[in-house]
Specification:
By secondary structure, this protein is mainly α. It has two domains: 14-104, Arc Repressor Mutant, subunit A (Orthogonal Bundle), CATH 1.10.10.10; 110-169. Helices cover 67% and strands 6% of the residues. Strands 1-3-2 form a three-stranded antiparallel β-sheet. The longest helix has 37 residues, at 133-169.
């Protein structure tokens, strides 16, 4: 069976066309929120595919881009924990997979990023002085990322509880 998005047969029917339009709309939301544009397109295409997994060749075909664009996008998505690479036994081509908890994984892995921002801002406060306007801005930045690092684990725990409870109700 051909890899598709939107649960279609890959024949260009109306549902697949609408699915591709959805991919572009949602990818635009992500890119306007700071995600690299091609990574957003690849991520949403994977989310919209029935199995949550597609080969690089199929992604390139669907998104009408070259292999290098897909390669760069999946490298980014793998690095931030939103996509994994897998290989089916007996096949030579990699498939890229997104799982339902990809947003959770991305948020959970953000601690290292928050820590770097916090430490970088702390360095700025030391260099510029806490008693200067720039130092005050950087100290607020440091405190903000320290706050996120402290709060995100609890927020993720609450999400798991909420998700478990609402999934059972459905």
């Amino acid at each position: 069976m051909a890899e598709t998005i939107g649960g279609t047969t890959g024949t260009g029917d109306d549902r697949e066309i609408e699915a591709l339009r959805f991919v572009e709309r949602f990818a635009l939301i992500m890119s306007e929120s700071g995600y690299p544009r091609m990574a957003a397109r690849v991520f949403v295409a994977l989310m919209a595919s029935p199995e949550g997994a597609l080969t690089a060749a199929r992604l390139a075909e669907m998104l009408q881009v070259g292999p290098s664009a897909i390669s760069g996008a999946v490298k980014y998505l793998i690095r931030v924990g939103m996509v994994t690479r897998e290989r089916d036994p007996g096949h030579r081509r990699d498939r890229y997979r997104v799982d339902q908890a990809s947003w959770y994984a991305a948020a959970a892995s953000s601690d290292a990023v928050y820590r770097r921002f916090e430490e970088g801002a702390r360095d700025g406060v030391e260099v510029l002085g806490a008693d200067t306007p720039a130092g005050a801005r950087l100290d607020e930045t440091r405190r903000f990322f320290a706050f996120l690092r402290r709060e995100v684990p609890d927020l993720l725990r609450r999400w798991r509880e909420y998700n478990d409870a609402t999934r059972q109700d459905a």
